[in-house]
C-alpha cells in the first residue's frame, strides 16, 4: 500500500529533465502519424489528437493501449511500447497541439475511502464490477479489471473516458477519493478465505456444484458402497 | 491400515481439532483456520463412525416383506359407511349452511391481509418531477449543461428529492448534431443534454451502464440496450419499451430544469399502464 | 429407561420394529439424506445468525472496522450483517457456512430428485411423496431467495427489484398483489422484516413439516430397491436400521457438515461489504442471483422483447419468462407421476426401481428437461461468461436462444439412443470391463471369454 502511494506521488512529480517536444514529435511521426495524421489532426484510421490533453496521451501510452495494431478491436492493457522518457516527450508534443486536461495529481494516502466507495458504487461498479474485477458491457466491449491499474491511470481514465467509457467531471478531491478506493480494492482484505474471482454468485454456484456437491456425492459413494460385490449387479462371469 | 486403527485415529484427530478450535476462538479471528479445524473436528468424527460401521460391523443382509398398503375394498366400504353417518348426512340443509358459514368466515379472516399494502392508485403513473424542477446531482447541486462533458453521464433527481427511486433520471450529454430526436421532442435536449428514466422498462433495474462511443445505455441485469440518440429505443435484450424521456429546458440562470413530469409511466410494464386507473 | 417408555408408550414393540427396519444398500439412496443434513446445518447456523441479525430498515451511520463504508448511511439490517462479519467472533464463519449450506441444500435436493426421476421411484405408491418432494424443492428455493435478500446489500436489493417487477407484470392483479406483498411501490421500508418472517418462521416451519411427512411416508411405504438376486416387488433387501444404518447416517451427517464447514472457512461467499448498502438508484455488476434462481434470471435474459397490448391490457415482456414458464416447469414436474401413468397405463405398485436405460423415453424426457434448465441457468450468467471467455454478450444470448430450442431435443434423442444401445450391450457405461479375459483351452491355445 505504502509503496503504491509513493509511486503515485513520484509519477505525478515533474521529472528533473524537461521532456523535449521535438523528440516527441519524432516518435510521433514514426509511431502515431500513420493513423492520427502528421500534425495530430486525425485521419481515416484515427481520431484527432488536438486538444485531447496530457491525461489522455499519458493514459493510452502508459497502459500500452496505443499504438493499436487493429483499430476495430478494443484497445487493451499491455506492456507499454515506449519507455518513461519517450512517453514524457510524446505527452509533451501532443499536449502542445492544443489545450486539454493535464495529468491529474493523486495522493491515495489522503483519500477518504468511504467517499470513494460511494462514488465507485454510483458511477463505476455497474461496468467494472463491485470488486473492480471488470465486466462485459455488451457488444465487443469489456470494462477492464481495475485490480492491476496504477492510480494515476485510473484518474486519467475517469477524466478522459477511453473507448466506450463515459467521461466524468469529478472535482479534484472526489477524484482522489475514488482512486483511493480503487487502490484499496486492489489490496482489499478477504477475511473469508479464497475470493474465487470476485464475480459473485456465478463463481459461488460453480464452486457449490463442483467442489461441494462433487465432494458430497463422493462421500455418499464412500459411505454407501458395500465392500462385497453388489447383488444389484448380477454376476457376469 | 487396520480399520479399527483408522477409526481410532480419526476420533483422536477430531478431538484434537475440537480443542484447537476452542483455542482459536479465544486467540482471535481467523475464519479460514476456524473453518478448517471445524471441518476436521466434524469430519474426523464422521469418518471414524463410517469406518466403524463399514468395516467392523457384520451387518448381515436381511429381508423384510412389504405388507400390502391397501386395506382392501371391504375395509374401505366400512370406513365410508362410518363417515356417511346418517346423523350427519341426513341434515343436508345444515351441512350446506355449515360449509357456507365456514367459507364466509375464512373470507372474513383473509380480509385483514389487505392492510399489508396500499392500493396502487396513481402511484405507478407519476414521479416527483414537476414543471420547472431543477435537475440536481446526488450532492443536491444544480447542473448547467457545461458542467457535464460531452460523453459524460450523471444520475439526477428533481431538486429536493435526491435519492427518489421512481424519479431517478440518467442525464447524458452528447454532441447536439448527433441527436435524432423523436418527433415532438426537438427542444427537449438543450445543448445535447438528454434525460431518460434510469429505471429499466423490463425488470426495473437502474440502467447503470453507458457506452459512450456507441451512445447506448445498457441495463446490467438483463442486458437490455437503449439508443440514446434515437429516443432510447431498445436495440437489444428483453426490454420492449423505450426509456421514458424527461422533457428538459434551461431556466433563466442557465440551469437544467424539467418542463414537466414524464409523459408516460416509468419503470417496468404493468397491465393497465396505457390507460390508468 | 426403556421400561419407563414402554409402560407409557408401548415402546418395546415399536422401537424394536423400527430398529429392525431394512434399508437397501445403495449409495444413491443417501442423496436425500445429504439434503436433510444440509438442512440440519442450515437450522443450526441460522439460529446463530438470527441472534445477531436485525431485520430493520431504519437508517444508521456505520462506524465499524470496515474502513471503506465508515460514515455511510445504511439500513440497520446491513449494518448488523457487517458487524456479524467483522466483529462477531466466528460470525463470518457461521454466515459463510449458512450460505454454502443453502446453495448445496438446493443442489442436493435437485440431485436427489433426479435419482428419483430417472429410476422411476415416483411411481405408485410413491406419487404423494413425489409431490411432497417437489413442494420441498419450491420452499427450499423460497428460503434461499428470502435469505439472499435479507442483508439489504446492493446486489440482493437489485434481485428484489426484479422480483417486484416480475410480480408487477402479472395481468390484472399484478399491481395489487405486488403492493400487498411489498407494502407499496418499490423500495419499501417494511420488506426486510417481511422477508425475515418468511425466512426464519413460515418457510422453515413448512419445510420441517413437509420433511416429517416425507420421511413418515417413506417409513410407511418402505424403500424401493434396485433389481437383484432375491429382490422382488414384495420385499426389501438390505441392512437393518440398527446399528449399521444409524452409524452410517450419523457419519454421513458429520461428513456433510465437515464439507460445509471447510467451504465456509476457506472460500469466501457473498462478501456483502464489497457491494455496499442498498440504494435504489445504483446497481452493481455483475448482477446475479444465487444459482438456483439462475434459470429464472436466464429466462428473463433470453426472452425476446415481446410485449403485447390488446384492448388496453399490456402483457409485459417479463411475464412469460418470469411467471408463465416457471409455473409450467413446476406444474409439469409436480404432475409427472400422473402424466406418466396416463401415457403408460401402468397402474401397478412398483417397489423395484428402473435403471435409466430400462425406460428410454422417460430418460430422454428427463435429459431434455435437465438440459433446458441447465441452459437457462447458464444464460443467467451470460455476462460473466462473456467476460471470462471474451465473447460479446449478445452473441452468447443469441446462441443460447437457439440452443434452448435445439439442444434439449437433440440431447433427449441422444439419451434415447444411448439407452437403447445399453439395453443391447448390457454393461454399465462406467463400469464396463476393460481388456479381455482369456481362457486356456484344452488344446493348449487361448480363447476370449465374453
Short account of what is shown:
The complex is a heterotrimer of chains A (237), B (277) and C (450). Chain A has ten helices and two strands, in the order H-H-H-H-H-H-H-E-E-H-H-H.
Task: Describe it.
The complex is a heterotrimer of chains A (237), B (277) and C (450). Helix content of chain A is 47%, strand content 2%. In chain A, a hairpin with a 5-residue loop joins strand 1 and strand 2 (142-143). Chain A starts with a helix and ends in a 13-residue tail after the last helix. The model of chain A is unreliable at 1-15 and 228-237 (pLDDT under 50). Chain A is mostly helical. Among the domains of chain A are: 21-95, Cytochrome c-like domain (Cytochrome Bc1 Complex, Chain D, domain 2); 113-186, Cytochrome c-like domain (Cytochrome Bc1 Complex, Chain D, domain 2). Chain A has helices spanning 2-12, 21-31, 33-36, 53-62, 84-95, 113-123, 125-128, 151-160, 172-186, 201-224, and strands spanning 135-136, 142-143. By secondary structure, chain B is of the alpha+beta class. Chain B has two domains: 3-56 and 84-114; 123-272, Rieske [2Fe-2S] iron-sulphur domain (Rieske Iron-sulfur Protein). Chain B has five helices and twelve strands. Chain B has helices at residues 3-27, 31-56, 72-83, 86-89, 92-110, and strands spanning 62-65, 135-136, 152-158, 169-173, 193-197, 209-211, 216-218, 225-227, 233-236, 245-246, 248-250, 256-258. In chain B, helix 1 packs antiparallel against helix 2 (31-56). The longest helix of chain B is centred in the N-terminal third of the chain and has 26 residues, at 31-56. By secondary structure, chain C is mainly alpha-helical. Chain C has a domain at 21-281: Cytochrome Bc1 Complex, Chain C (Up-down Bundle), CATH 1.20.810. Chain C has helices at residues 2-9, 11-20, 31-50, 76-86, 91-118, 127-149, 154-168, 174-182, 191-221, 241-266, 272-275, 294-302, 319-344, 360-379, 382-389, 393-425; strands at residues 22-23, 59-61, 73-75, 235-240, 308-310, 313-315, 437-440, 446-449. In chain C, strand 5 (308-310) and strand 6 form a beta hairpin. In chain C, helix 12 crosses helix 13 (319-344). Chain C is globular and about 90 Å long. At the B-C interface, helix 2 and strand 1 of B face helix 5, helix 7, helix 8, strand 4 and helix 10 of C.
